[in-house]
Design a protein that fits this description.
- By secondary structure, the protein is mainly β.
- Among the domains are: 73-290, Methylamine Dehydrogenase, Chain H, CATH 2.130.10.10; 590-684, Immunoglobulins (Immunoglobulin-like, Sandwich), CATH 2.60.40.10; 691-777, Immunoglobulin-like (Sandwich), CATH 2.60.40.4070.
- Helices cover 0% and strands 51% of the residues.
- It starts with a strand and ends with a strand.
């Protein structure tokens, strides 16, 4: 039974800093699952709430991020061209009735769900901590088997198989009502299986595990594959031809039932997550947005989309006007001369990872990386030459004050100083620290940070370093915007100093790997899970792009670098070749922390809070009954411009109104007359009369929903009777508070036996209220 409470939404005003993808294209979030409508039409889902639909040309992508905020989407399924189903990482179940154009929350099945399979338009299954079944498009779920299940497959509407994480194989012959154990594979982790008929199937899993069956899962044959990687997905065209994919871009194929295997590891360096197809046309999806396509059953593969690189990008530096340099893994160096609109790849013919790059002017620069690699350029980055360096440790950061004076730091306590442009190096190394950042504030003041949470400072040009502070987590970045004011970015957030670094105070708790300020007030930071933070008041408060109260984000990937041309136009880099940009990052006039509604009897109290206000005249409060027109019911004066948190409230008395659904929104108005609407808060008002509504659907099979309302706390009894007046089952028999309730009758009697087709009656008794209605069950 379900009680219908009022709905509550927390949203900002609908002006977002939109981050779009520069590389890779069409996007670079991990893709976790896809569904094929036909051999040329694909619908994929992934991290950062990403959904993608692909048309016939392989270039016509429709992409959305954060359709379910902050949540990876792990599985997608369609039971018809219009009816779609999504599973989020945390067990949220979402439905679409328009072919995936929009999605609505339906229910939560379990904290984590692993697979989904629909066998017709109404009946489906989810594998989580158990097998759950629905017969009404996911409105309700019934547990059928207590087992952690990673894959479910059906041959027809009644015959299906299920695979547990530890290799137990289950079978059903009655559309999933009952499941029985067929066999148990050797105990290890398994990921997926594919059955092509009631006899033949293939299972894949960890350590290169591939098993096949020819007798419907009773016996399984192990195939020896020359790999210990995690095999993540398998597709069978027939009993001889099947292909599996694995970590690190491995594609495994057989054309003779597994007697011989072909391992292809050249097409992708990312983790491949899913393979599927129709006939010879195959698709593979993977991490960082990888999509591969083959139209000849895997003989040849082509990438869908474009990319500069998918190697991780570790550091970005800027040289005005508009010159950007990026250092990345596998010898990657990128250069842009137009603020990141276009990029040139510099091929240095090395597989070492680069971790930092620094230029003293457009002509002269250095780049450092793994195994003590140091390279320098004197011709605007056209050619790079290796410099002799006295350490083979990983070098994490380089900073030069001029052509001659500079530092390099890294692992194993490495600190080296040069006064002749890198021709010779002075060893200043300390202990066994992992030094992550070197920052030359002026000719005498040098700062160093390490992953052991420490900040060190030298006041004598780097000859001696002293411990200044031990912070709460690994330190990644140091930045001063004037002589007194500076910041550090840590795994645990942002720290600020206003006294040249003598003391540091925490200002943000968000993981921050890199900081950038465009002026004394406006600054940005980037970090783990695609988080982008912004300050408009010189770092005293930081707002989170992509958080529940601020701005939309494009990715869950780790971001490692950020640069802003001005307060609106910015670019960020990260792992997997991530390059994203925004052109409208200036602050919204009002940053709304929350907007909610509380119901007390027939009065509604609206509350909202602003984190800051800019040129804010005030708020019109608007109301809508049902689907009628919006009307203005009040106004609250704003505070103009403020960076202080401000709370507002407004009470709406609905006594005398006989309405069930009421919606509210705010119209925020600037002094110049421009305005923006908040998102809508919807509530369900408590009923003002007793009511028993008609069941739906009606006629029904196998279940129907009965809805009723009571205005005061009452002893409620809801019963089902047959045409002879005999009680079939009592659905409710208890005290209930005022409200509207829904209860589902599954067409069974009090002994859990399915009743026959016919006319039935349902009757409610609540206090002095009593009513009876008729319904029809059609088996």
């Amino acid at each position: 039974m379900k009680k219908l409470f009022y709905l509550l939404f927390l949203f900002p005003f609908t002006v977002f800093a939109q981050w779009t993808w520069v590389n890779p294209l069409p996007q670079g979030n991990d893709l976790l699952d896809f569904y094929l409508f036909n051999s040329d039409s694909l619908y994929a889902v992934g991290t950062a709430g990403t959904v993608m639909s692909l048309g016939n040309s392989h270039t016509n992508w429709d992409i959305q991020h954060q359709i379910i905020p902050m949540t990876p989407l792990v599985r997608v399924e369609f039971s018809s061209p219009n009816d779609g189903y999504l599973l989020s990482e945390y067990g949220g179940f979402y439905r679409s009735t328009n072919g995936g154009l929009s999605w609505n929350y339906s229910s939560t099945i379990h904290y984590y769900a692993y697979c989904i399979k629909f066998i017709n338009e109404t009946t489906g299954f989810v594998g989580a901590d158990a097998i759950y079944k629905t017969t009404n498009k996911g409105a309700n779920w019934v547990k059928k088997l207590q087992e952690y299940v990673t894959s479910i497959d059906f041959i027809n509407d009644t015959l299906g198989f299920a695979l547990s994480f530890l290799g137990s194989i289950y079978k059903t012959t009655d559309a999933g009502e009952n499941w029985y154990l067929l066999n148990a594979l050797p105990s290890q982790w398994y990921t997926e299986f594919d059955f092509i008929n009631e006899q033949f199937g293939v299972v894949v899993g960890y350590d290169g595990a591939i098993y096949k069956t020819y007798d419907g899962g009773v016996h399984w044959n192990y195939h020896t594959i020359n790999t210990n990687r995690v095999v993540t997905s398998v597709y069978c065209r027939d009993e001889n031809n099947f292909i599996a994919v694995a970590d690190s871009g491995l594609i495994i194929k057989t054309t003779n039932g597994g007697a011989r295997w072909i391992l292809n590891n050249k097409e992708s360096i990312v983790r491949l997550r899913k393979i599927g197809g129709i006939g010879d046309k195959l698709y593979i999806i993977g991490s960082y947005g990888e999509i591969l396509f083959s139209d000849d059953f895997g003989e040849n593969w082509s990438k869908i989309g474009n990319e500069i690189t998918r190697d991780s990008l570790n550091y970005m530096t800027n040289i005005d006007p508009g010159i950007l340099w990026v250092a990345g893994n596998n010898g990657t160096i990128l250069n842009s001369t137009d603020y990141g609109q276009n990029w040139i790849v510099k091929n240095l013919e090395t597989s070492e990872n680069f971790y930092s790059v620094d230029f003293v002017d457009p002509q002269k620069g250095w780049i450092v990386g793994s195994n003590g690699l140091v390279m320098t350029t004197n011709d605007f980055g056209e050619t790079w030459n290796q410099q002799t360096f006295p350490s083979t440790s990983r070098l994490r950061s380089v900073d030069f004050y001029d052509y001659n004076y500079g530092f390099i730091v890294g692992d194993d306590g490495v600190i080296y100083k040069t006064t002749d442009g890198g021709s010779t190096w002075i060893n200043l190394s300390i202990g066994n620290y992992q030094f992550s950042k070197i920052y030359i504030k002026d000719s005498m003041t040098v700062w160093i940070a390490n992953l052991q949470r420490q900040l060190l400072r030298s006041l004598d040009g780097g000859n001696n370093f002293n411990l200044i502070a031990t912070l709460n987590s690994e330190v990644y970045d140091i930045l001063f915007i004037n002589d007194q004011k500076g910041f550090v970015g840590c795994k645990g957030g942002v720290y600020k100093t206003t006294n040249s670094g003598e003391t540091w105070s925490p200002k943000s708790g968000v993981d921050t790997r890199k900081l950038y300020f465009v002026n004394d007030n406006f600054g940005w930071g980037v970090g783990d899970k695609g988080r982008i933070i912004r300050t408009i008041n010189s770092g005293d408060r930081w707002d989170t792009f992509g958080g529940p109260n601020f701005f939309e984000k494009a990715t869950d990937n780790l971001l490692t670098g950020v640069y802003f041309k001005n307060i609106e136009e910015g670019i960020a880099i990260g792992v997997g070749g991530t390059i994203i940009k925004t052109e409208n990052a200036s602050p919204t006039p009002v940053e709304l922390s929350f907007f909610n509604a509380l119901v007390n009897g027939y009065k509604v109290e609206l509350k909202w809070q602003t984190a800051s206000e800019l040129n804010n005249q005030g708020f019109e409060v608007q109301r809508m009954f049902g689907n009628s027109d919006w009307i203005t019911i009040g106004f609250k004066q704003g505070l103009g411009t403020t960076t202080e948190i401000t709370n507002y409230s407004f009470e709406d008395d609905l006594s005398g109104f006989n309405v069930e659904r009421v919606s509210y929104r705010l119209k925020q108005i600037d002094f110049n007359g421009t305005y923006k609407f908040s998102e809508v808060v919807g509530i369900l008002m408590p009923p003002n009369k007793y009511e028993l509504t008609q069941n739906y659907p009606n006629p029904f099979n196998p279940a129907t929903t009965i809805r009723y309302s009571i205005t005061t706390p009452s002893k409620v009894k809801l019963q089902i009777f047959n045409a002879l007046g005999e009680e079939i089952v009592s659905l409710v028999n208890k005290e209930q508070s005022a409200g509207t309730y829904e209860v589902i009758w599954d067409g069974k009697d009090k002994y859990d036996n399915a009743v026959s087709s016919g006319i039935y009656f349902y009757r409610i008794n609540a206090g002095q209220f009593s009513e009876t209605r008729k319904m029809i069950l059609l088996r």
